[in-house]
Amino acid sequence: MSQAMDTAQLLFRARTGKKNEDLFDTVESYLTALLQNGQIITYKVAKVRTGYLVIASLPESDALADRFANTWVRKRHRELAAIGVARPKVTYLGADPESRAPCGCRKQPFLILFTTFLNAEPPLRCGACFGPIALYKVPFTTAVDAHRDVLQWEETYQAMDSLFIGTGPGERFAHAQLSRFDSELSADGRELARNLERRVRVPVYYYLSKYFGRSDQAERKRKCPSCGKSWLRKEPLHRIFDFQCQRCRLLSNVAFDVRYSPRPGGSR
After folding, report:
1. What are residue 124's DSSP bridge partners?
2. What pTM was estimated for this model as a whole?
3. CATH no., domain 6-95
4. Element (H, E) at 155
């Protein structure tokens, strides 16, 4: 297994005389199926003389293996074959130096739904090593045999995180969505975590990201916002999560402006 996400080149060769729009639509459908199955993370398509060239980020070096394909990937591949396009030629370009190594644990004691606006890895992390877990390795939570619900939550979360980081008029709204356990974003994420937990049969935690705080002392007195019980850990988990409620499956952090403030007691 690679030490980080892999970057691969996929070349789809066009059959002579085939309409480009037919080929592109079929290639795009195939790539979408791979994306929704978790076999690729992101991709870019370029038109080249011989067909279409795709640069894709893979969660693991063997992510494109047939054994990971779901119903939709196999169906879209058959559609490619039907228009005379052979299996794409795959060239591995190397590891993404800015990505985290995928989980290599034999068993995960618990999982964490986690992403940020900067993250390109899968939004599911191992609770033991904090390595990303390829989505094709976990059961689907919808009847359509795709991870659309996970990817939709991830897209919305990253949009909120980007809105918050960008500051301006939406900052407070975005922070509330990220930090409150009862926000619309958190409600969707917690429901998704519960659905995943029923299928993987290990705890799945949801992360409440908090930036604004009054003081370090006040932050460490915080109780679980869902059940009101103590949830401060003795030591931070993965140097991020200062709070953990096993009952409510929630994680959080000491407010970042308190943690990183140069002034005693925090900045708010």
Report:
1. 113
2. 0.91
3. 3.30.70.100
4. helix 148-165
